[in-house]
Design goal:
The protein is mainly alpha-helical. The protein is 29% helix and 0% strand. It has 3 helices and no strands.
Length: 86
């Protein structure tokens, strides 16, 4: 936080600098800043999953990024089959 404040008060940033909104100038000592950070910090990570890719029977996604076991039929395919949509 000290480094962030030092960067924020650099003379080169003066034309764009407003005021320190958070934690604010009232949080000047290390204990107050640490307490603020403990109360407010949160993870912004976006957890995602992974799956095996390839042509063997175990992969979920094939080389063309198509999910194994899912068949999507297009409107054109339905028309050419002669079947009416249900």
């Amino acid at each position: 936080m000290r480094l962030l404040r030092e960067i924020g008060t650099a003379p080169a940033l003066a034309p764009w600098r407003g005021f320190e909104a958070f934690p604010g100038p009232g949080k000047a000592n290390d204990e107050a800043v640490r307490a603020y950070l403990c109360r407010t910090l949160a993870s912004y990570c976006h957890p995602v999953g992974t799956c095996r890719t390839g042509e063997a029977p175990l992969p979920v996604v094939g080389p063309g990024l198509r999910v194994h076991g899912i068949l999507l039929r297009t409107h054109r395919q339905r028309q050419s089959s002669g079947r009416k949509p249900t």
